[in-house]
Design a protein that fits this description.
Length: about 170
């Protein structure tokens, strides 16, 4: 995980001078990679990152995360802001959040949570999923990253190839 040593003698002079009065350290062009057993699980980038040692959090601006799947695929997650919890490696991404799996599927919402231990991305907020002949709206979702399984929790409304199948009356279909 991200580690900042408390001793000023160990940190480079540039970093110790950048530390603010609240004990935070800010970095530009932040990049962090989570590696398990020699394999990268995900990488997160941010235009700026502010590390708060007392809270064990790194606050991120303009966040981009790529999750690397065992089958070679990738899941891309972006958002306006984020928080990386340094002790658990869990993340919260907020504001204009987008998730995509290749070119085929795109999911939008306002806030997502990532649980590292469960390899799970989830939210209780409204979502919009678009791709390959489907538009799906719903309330809440769970994306099991390695299983590539998406569950929408409630209030599901689906449009398939222009035909509304749930939640609305069909129009112009015979």
């Amino acid at each position: 995980g991200l580690k900042v040593r408390p001793s000023k003698n160990i940190l480079p002079a540039v970093v110790t001078k950048a530390a603010s009065s609240d004990g935070s350290i800010s970095l530009n062009n932040f990049e962090y990679r989570d590696v398990k057993e020699g394999t990268a699980r995900w990488t997160v980038w941010a235009t700026t990152a502010t590390y708060f040692e007392d809270r064990q959090e790194t606050v991120l601006d303009q966040v981009k995360t790529i999750f690397f799947l065992k089958n070679g695929g990738q899941v891309l997650l972006t958002g306006d802001t984020g928080v990386l919890h340094n002790d658990t490696q869990n993340m919260e991404i907020s504001g204009n959040v987008k998730v995509s799996y290749g070119e085929r599927y795109r999911l939008s919402t306002e806030r997502l949570l990532y649980d590292r231990d469960k390899e799970l991305i989830h939210t209780g907020l409204p979502i919009l999923l678009e791709g390959e002949g489907i538009i799906l709206k719903g309330q809440g979702m769970r994306l099991e990253i390695e299983k590539r399984t998406l569950s929408v929790l409630s209030n599901i409304e689906t449009t398939l190839d222009g035909i509304v199948s749930f939640g609305r009356q069909q129009q112009g279909v015979s």
